[in-house]
Design goal:
This protein has four helices and no strands. It has about 80 residues and is mostly helical.
Length: about 80
């Protein structure tokens, strides 16, 4: 166990029961993600996703008609 985790677990011993249970629940959720192999995107990946969503909302991508017109142009 790393030092930061060890320190917080020892301090949590003095917390009220409701706070200890909340910490335990968070730990169970993290454990379930680890066991399931859940992927956590990096901050850079999340920023890229946000840029893509923003671009989509602002109409910066070709619609289906535009894509088909481009393909038709190059199929000739």
């Amino acid at each position: 166990m790393n030092k930061a985790l060890n320190d917080i677990v020892h301090r949590a011993d003095a917390w009220p029961d409701f706070a200890q249970e909340e910490l335990a629940q968070l730990a169970r959720e993290i454990e379930a993600e680890v066991k399931a192999g859940a992927y956590r995107a990096t901050p850079e990946e999340l920023a890229g996703i946000d840029r893509g969503l923003s671009d989509s909302a602002n109409g910066k991508f070709a619609d289906a008609k535009q894509v088909e017109a481009t393909f038709a142009k190059h199929r000739r």
